[in-house]
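Recall the central idea of this unit: under ordinary conditions, the amino acid sequence of a chain determines the structure it adopts. In this exercise we apply that idea directly, starting from the sequence alone.
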Amino acid sequence: MLSKKTKYAIKALMVLGRNYGKEPMQIIKIAEEERIPKKFLEQILLEMRNAGILYSKKGAGGGYSLNKAPEDIFLSQVMRLIDGPIALLPCVSLNFYRSCEECVEEHACGIRDTFVEVRNAMLQILNDTSIAQLINKEKQLSFDIDIQPE
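Accordingly, the structure predicted from this sequence is:
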């Protein structure tokens, strides 16, 4: 399950993505716009700044902005940064691999083999979905709702 922390990170990135190329945004504005607790958001934005996803500016006119284009920030990056492994089992993780204690023959494990397929399908989507695509998808979904016949 996607953690609240990761969901908030993605929502904050979408706000900053819509603001890309403009003045930095203050934390309070992002928090209010997306209904994210300010203290929690501060921690999340700091993590993303330390990872190079965000840029921060102090003082008057300060705040946060994207350090790269929304097209270049992918869900898999954000999820790994905030929560670590994406795979549902440690024995199928690409970046956080650990063998399962109870497993005798990992290469012959039907559970592992199935969850490798799940991981691959999920990674395909997460590696190919950028913040810009989420912003566009949200616009399209809002547009679709607006044109529904009564």
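The first strand starts at residue 54 and ends at 57.
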